[in-house]
Amino acid sequence: MKPGETGVKRIISATRNSLRGIRLAWQSEAAFRQDMILGAVLVIIACIAPITTVERVVLIAAVLILLMVELLNSGIEAAIDRIGPERHELSGKAKDVASAAVFFALVNLGVSNLLILGPWLLSLVSN
């Protein structure tokens, strides 16, 4: 953003930067593309499943959390790679910790979907 941007101009600029970041992640990060596709499928399922509005919000929020954490992980990896190609203990630690955050976001997504959609899916299978 340019110095001194305020109000609507700042919001438009920030939105443009965010959309560019999503596009760059889609183009360069296979994990982000996989998470987006998985998320799209799960959001569609959440929208058609016979669940409460609160449950639907929880499922969609879990998808959004995964995407946010994946973007942060990609940003950390890009920053570390920008510093240099040599291996360093702290670089490895930063990448591993960011990867662990993605792991927990995936666990959150899986547990949320199993607990909320599990009974509905079991009723579909048993009928």
TrEMBL record:
<feature type="binding site">
    <location>
        <position position="70"/>
    </location>
    <ligand>
        <name>substrate</name>
    </ligand>
</feature>
<keyword id="KW-0443">Lipid metabolism</keyword>
<dbReference type="InterPro" id="IPR036945">
    <property type="entry name" value="DAGK_sf"/>
</dbReference>
<comment type="similarity">
    <text>Belongs to the bacterial diacylglycerol kinase family.</text>
</comment>
<feature type="binding site">
    <location>
        <begin position="95"/>
        <end position="96"/>
    </location>
    <ligand>
        <name>ATP</name>
    </ligand>
</feature>
<feature type="binding site">
    <location>
        <position position="10"/>
    </location>
    <ligand>
        <name>substrate</name>
    </ligand>
</feature>
<feature type="binding site">
    <location>
        <begin position="23"/>
        <end position="26"/>
    </location>
    <ligand>
        <name>substrate</name>
    </ligand>
</feature>
<keyword id="KW-1208">Phospholipid metabolism</keyword>
<keyword id="KW-0479">Metal-binding</keyword>
<keyword id="KW-0594">Phospholipid biosynthesis</keyword>
<dbReference type="GO" id="GO:0004143">
    <property type="term" value="F:ATP-dependent diacylglycerol kinase activity"/>
</dbReference>
<dbReference type="Pfam" id="PF01219">
    <property type="entry name" value="DAGK_prokar"/>
</dbReference>
<feature type="transmembrane region" description="Helical">
    <location>
        <begin position="97"/>
        <end position="122"/>
    </location>
</feature>
<feature type="transmembrane region" description="Helical">
    <location>
        <begin position="30"/>
        <end position="51"/>
    </location>
</feature>
<keyword id="KW-0067">ATP-binding</keyword>
<feature type="binding site">
    <location>
        <position position="77"/>
    </location>
    <ligand>
        <name>a divalent metal cation</name>
    </ligand>
</feature>
<dbReference type="InterPro" id="IPR033718">
    <property type="entry name" value="DAGK_prok"/>
</dbReference>
<feature type="binding site">
    <location>
        <position position="29"/>
    </location>
    <ligand>
        <name>a divalent metal cation</name>
    </ligand>
</feature>
<feature type="binding site">
    <location>
        <position position="29"/>
    </location>
    <ligand>
        <name>ATP</name>
    </ligand>
</feature>
<feature type="active site" description="Proton acceptor">
    <location>
        <position position="70"/>
    </location>
</feature>
<feature type="binding site">
    <location>
        <position position="99"/>
    </location>
    <ligand>
        <name>substrate</name>
    </ligand>
</feature>
<protein>
    <recommendedName>
        <fullName>Diacylglycerol kinase</fullName>
        <ecNumber>2.7.1.107</ecNumber>
    </recommendedName>
</protein>
<feature type="binding site">
    <location>
        <position position="10"/>
    </location>
    <ligand>
        <name>ATP</name>
    </ligand>
</feature>
<feature type="binding site">
    <location>
        <position position="56"/>
    </location>
    <ligand>
        <name>substrate</name>
    </ligand>
</feature>
<keyword id="KW-0812">Transmembrane</keyword>
<keyword id="KW-0418">Kinase</keyword>
<keyword id="KW-0444">Lipid biosynthesis</keyword>
<keyword id="KW-0472">Membrane</keyword>
<dbReference type="GO" id="GO:0005886">
    <property type="term" value="C:plasma membrane"/>
</dbReference>
<dbReference type="GO" id="GO:0046872">
    <property type="term" value="F:metal ion binding"/>
</dbReference>
<feature type="binding site">
    <location>
        <position position="77"/>
    </location>
    <ligand>
        <name>ATP</name>
    </ligand>
</feature>
<feature type="transmembrane region" description="Helical">
    <location>
        <begin position="57"/>
        <end position="76"/>
    </location>
</feature>
<keyword id="KW-0997">Cell inner membrane</keyword>
<keyword id="KW-0460">Magnesium</keyword>
<keyword id="KW-0808">Transferase</keyword>
<dbReference type="GO" id="GO:0006654">
    <property type="term" value="P:phosphatidic acid biosynthetic process"/>
</dbReference>
<keyword id="KW-1133">Transmembrane helix</keyword>
<comment type="function">
    <text>Catalyzes the ATP-dependent phosphorylation of sn-l,2-diacylglycerol (DAG) to phosphatidic acid. Involved in the recycling of diacylglycerol produced as a by-product during membrane-derived oligosaccharide (MDO) biosynthesis.</text>
</comment>
<feature type="binding site">
    <location>
        <begin position="86"/>
        <end position="88"/>
    </location>
    <ligand>
        <name>ATP</name>
    </ligand>
</feature>
<dbReference type="InterPro" id="IPR000829">
    <property type="entry name" value="DAGK"/>
</dbReference>
<keyword id="KW-0547">Nucleotide-binding</keyword>
<dbReference type="GO" id="GO:0005524">
    <property type="term" value="F:ATP binding"/>
</dbReference>
